[in-house]
Amino acid sequence: MVNVPKTRRTFCKKCKKHQPHKVTQYKKGKDSLYVQGKRRYDRKQSGYGGQSKPIFRKKKYSVDCREELKFLENVSSVTSGTKLKAFDKIYQSNMVADV
């Protein structure tokens, strides 16, 4: 379990100075049904013949928990990729002075 603060003071490219950023866990977006690989896979799966491609079952132990940094007043966001086994947000008063 890795304890990560809810807010972190990091550099904002727009303001050109360090600002408090909100830390959220990165979530994968919904897969599109119309990308070329999905269309090809669906075409191959249709009809008789069973499962045409291997289904991956050996998931790696460490999960890619990227933390997404969003500036509190602006819309701009920065993502930093870190691989963690678990992701837990905590409040640390010594990390952020006045948020």
From TrEMBL:
The keyword Phosphoprotein does not apply. Pfam families: Ribosomal_L44. Keywords: Ribonucleoprotein, Ribosomal protein. GO terms for biological process: translation. It comes from the Eukaryota. The keyword Magnesium does not apply. One of its GO terms (cellular component) is ribonucleoprotein complex. One of its GO terms (molecular function) is structural constituent of ribosome. InterPro entries: Ribosomal_eL44, Ribosomal_LSU_eL42, Ribosomal_zn-bd. Belongs to the eukaryotic ribosomal protein eL42 family. Component of the large ribosomal subunit. The ribosome is a large ribonucleoprotein complex responsible for the synthesis of proteins in the cell. This is 60S ribosomal protein L36a.
